[in-house]
Structure formats: structure tokens, C-alpha cells
Design goal:
single chain; 76 residues; mainly alpha; two-stranded antiparallel sheet; 2 helices
Length: 76
């Protein structure tokens, strides 16, 4: 989504690319760019081949930021 004059604004909504990247990292899932049009698992999933370059970048940003934070699901 386009935002201010600065250019791209990261879509941080639940189910969006950034959110899905963070969630995949948090749950230690493999990197797989995707997002949901609406609610997570409750709406159409958009996979990498249908994503814009900006959405793919948002996904990787979310994944990388969570990796840098070291915040992961504790399964013990």
C-alpha cells in the first residue's frame, strides 16, 4: 500500500505480509512469503507468485525483524 511522500508503508495488519513473516519466524516455520486478504486462515491466501515486490519485501522485513529479536515460541 502506498503511503506518505516517503513511499511505501509497511502493511502491519493481522494477516498482512509483515505479520505473516513475523509469525513464520516466531513459530520457526520456513520462510515462505504469503499473506491473507482478510483474517489469517479465514480468507484467501495470496502466495509469493501473486505478491507485489513491496509485499514480498514486507514479509521478509517481518521475518528478519523477528529473527533479530530472537523471540520464538517456546514449545516446552
Amino acid at each position: 500500500m502506498k503511503g506518505s511522500k516517503k513511499g511505501w508503508v509497511t502493511d502491519r495488519r493481522h494477516g498482512g505480509p509483515y505479520d505473516r513473516g513475523r509469525a513464520d519466524s516466531y513459530y520457526r516455520r520456513p520462510r515462505r512469503p504469503h499473506y491473507f486478504v482478510g483474517g489469517t486462515y479465514m480468507s484467501e491466501e495470496v502466495t509469493e507468485e501473486r505478491m507485489s515486490a513491496e509485499s514480498i519485501a514486507d514479509y521478509h522485513r517481518g521475518f528478519d525483524e523477528n529473527e533479530a529479536s530472537g523471540t520464538y515460541k517456546d514449545y516446552e
